[in-house]
Amino acid sequence: MPELPEVETTRRGIAPYVEGREIVEVIVRHRSLRVPVPSDLESALIGGQFGELSRRAKYLLLPLADRTLLWHLGMSGSLRIARVGDPPKKHDHVDVVFEGGAILRYHDPRRFGFVDWLRVNADLDTRLSRLGPEPLSPDFDGQRLYRLSRGRRASVKTFIMDNIVVVGVGNIYATESLFMAGIDPRRAAGRVSLERFARLAEAIKTVLAAAITQGGTTLRDFVSGTGEPGYFAQRLNVYGRAGEPCRHCGLELRHIVLGQRATVYCAICQT
Predict the structure, then answer these.
(1) Distance separating alpha carbons of residues 61 and 50, to the nearest angstrom
(2) Which of 52, 98, 156, 179 is least crowded, fewest Cβ atoms below 10 Å from its Cβ?
(3) Is 52 part of the annotated catalytic residue set?
(4) Does the annotation count 3 as an active-site position?
(5) Does residue 57 come out as left (phi exceeding 0), alpha (psi in the -120 to 50 range) or beta?
(6) Spatial separation of the C-alpha atoms in residues 6 and 215, rounded to whole Å
(7) Which is catalytic among the residues 3, 6, 8, 176?
(8) Distance between terminal CA atoms of the chain?
(9) Which of the two residues, 227 and 251, has the higher pLDDT score?
C-alpha cells in the first residue's frame, strides 16, 4: 500500500506536468472505484487548470478555481505521467489530458482508491478533518505522543499507526522508526516514557524524511509519478528481514503480528 512518502513522492513528481496547464480532455474508463468517479468530472475539469498540488496524510489535493479534487491511491493505485499516444494498460482507469500532450494517468488494479470532490474544505470534509498532525510538521513531537498515550494499553506500534495520533506512519515506517528509537513494538503505549517518546518522534521524522528523499519504498510495483522506482527499501533495517541478522547486534530478527500487521524487531536492540 502506498504510504505517506510514496504519496509525497508522487505529488512532487506530477506537479511540474499538471500545475497551471489547461485540461483539454478527461477519459474515464471505469467509474466503479471505491467511491464512484463523479459524474461531472469530465465537464468540471475540461478547460480548467490545477493550482498548486498539496497533500494531507495520504490524500492528494488538486485545486481548481472553484473546487478541489481529492485523490487517494488506495492499496495498489498510482498516478503517473504519460504522453498522448501512450496506450493505456488494463487497469488504467482515468486519464486527465493537458495542453502540450502530458497525461495524468490513474492506474489501480484493485480499485480501492478513488477520485472525488473535496466537500466544502479540508476543515469540514470528514475524510480530512479528523486526522492528526503531519509527522514532519512542528505540531508533531514527543510531548503529543506522551500526552495521548497515557492509559493506553495498545502496543506502541499500533498507537503510532493511528491516524488520529499522527498521520502517515504506516507499517513499514512504524517498524523502522521503532527500531531506530530502540523501542520494543509490543510495549504498551501507556508505559513508554516521555524521553523515549521524544526519541521516537525524532526517529519518525528522520525515517520519513529519508524515505521521501529516496523516492519512497520499492514494494511490488510502486513507482513515482514519473515512473521512477523508490529506493528506500535498500536501507530498511528490520521490515521484511525476519530471520536475518540484526544489522547492529547480529541477533536473528523476530517476526510477530501486531494489530493484524507483520512486525519485525530485534529483541536486544529494542526494549
Answers:
(1) 10
(2) 52
(3) no
(4) yes
(5) left
(6) 7
(7) 3
(8) 28
(9) 251
